[in-house]
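USER: Fancy drafting a protein?

ASSISTANT:
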Amino acid sequence: MDTQLEQLSLRVGEHLKTRGWRLATAESCTGGWVAEVVTATAGSSAWFDCGFITYSNDAKCALLGVSPMTLARHGAVSEAATAAMARGTLERSEADLALSISGIAGPTGGTPEKPVGTVCFGWASTGEPPQTTTCRFDGDREEIRRQAVVFALEELLRRHP
C-alpha cells in the first residue's frame, strides 16, 4: 500500500477509536478497496466491523436491502442508491458509521448523463440521515477507483468530526 493510503487509514483509525466507533463499508466500483486499505492497518479490528462488496444490483438488494424501485428509478450509480446502501450497511452490521460507493470506473459503461468517472458516495451514522455526494474523477479505471477510495475516507473524516 502506498504512503498516502497508509496514512489516511491511520488517521481514520485514530478518528474512529477516539470516538468508540466502528466502520462498515458497502462498495461497488471499488470492489472492496476501502476495506482492504483499512484492514491493512494493524489494530483495525478495534474500529472496522465489516465490508460488503455489492457489485451487482441483485447483491445490493439482497445483501443491503436496497429497493429495486430505487435502482430502477435512479440507477445504481446515484445518490439515492448510495444512501440506501449506507443505511442497509448500518442495519446489517455492528457499525456506528457506514460508507458506500457506487460508480462507473470505465473504460466502458458511461453515458452522457453519467460519464466514466462518475462516482456516488454515501455516509451514514447511527441516528442520522445519510449524507451523499457525487464526484467526477479523471483517469483510467485504477486511477478512478483509487481517487474514490481516498475521497470516501477523507470525507468520512470531514463529515463525521
